[in-house]
Structure formats: C-alpha cells, structure tokens
Amino acid sequence: MALCAARRYLALVYGVPEAADPRLRGLRGVSFEAGGVMKLTSGLARHRSERQKQAVYFDGHGRHAITRARVLKQFGSPAQLSLLECRLETGRTHQIRVHLAYAGHGLVGDPVYGGTRKLRAKAFAAAAEKAVTGFPRQALHAAHLGFEHPVTGQTMAFEAPLPPDMAGLVSAVTHSTLA
Fold this sequence. Notes:
Layout (H helix, E strand, L loop, with lengths): L5 E9 L7 H4 L4 E4 L3 E10 L7 E4 L5 E13 L5 E8 L6 H8 L23 H8 L6 E9 L6 E5 L4 H12 L4
C-alpha cells in the first residue's frame, strides 16, 4: 500500500492503556510516545496451536506490525473501559485485535481475542453493564480509510461515523457511569 495510506479505527476496549501502568512498561514490544500514545511493535503470524488465530511474535517469526493507540475517553468509576483511536502503520490480519489483546486491553465483544473480562461491580449502571456484556460483535470501527488510487495516483479518503450499535454502546457507558 502506498505511503499515503491512512487507517484510523475506533475501538472500545477493557481497561485503560496508560504509560504509568508498570505491566505495560515491562511488556516487550510496547512503548509510549508523546501524548500518551501506546505503540505496539511485533511480528504477527498464525498462532502455533490455534491455527484460526493470529499471535504476537518477537523471534523473527511473522510479518512486521505496528499499531498506535491513543485513549480518547475513559468510562466507569473507576475506569473499566476506554475508547481508543488506533492508527495502523502496517495492515496485518487481525492486527488491532491481536495487539490490543496482547497488551491486556481486548476489544469489547471480541469472542476470539477479547477474553472474558468482567467489569468491576457497580462501575456502571445495570443497563450499561448489560450493553457491554451483550454486545454481539467486536467493538471496532474503521472511522477513516485513505489510500493512493493505483491507477490515477489520486489520494482517496473515506470517513464513516460510528454505526448505530456501537454509538449506542458508547452512549450507554458514557451516560450510566455510577459516581
């Protein structure tokens, strides 16, 4: 893909990736850039035993992958979820899902990589907790895609608002945080 390729995704994830988190500071392939941007760098390839999944590798195995994620908003009291803006430097199969799960911040609604994390009791009103636990798909949205047209060389860019189901989920956790 051409250098002008731009991919920006929105993801609702468990937890809040912060530079102050000692677990993340010690995790191989994770670093933080200015503005609190988490950078994940690794190889990605098929999981060695679960062939339907991708996995993070550092032994030269897999294709080079870089994901950057920035926290846009935190939800819960204390924070249990966060809305991330993810930018891809590379485009590998399941890249965002695998990288965020590796960092311990799996996507809400992701049955493959998201895990079965539970929200802390009373972090949200019951309706919001039900919206999170019952979300039927990965809470991931391609908000902006851009590329150079292969024939004309023209820069093409496309924006898309959050789909109604994901917008409803974000609204539910935004408006029902318990104090």
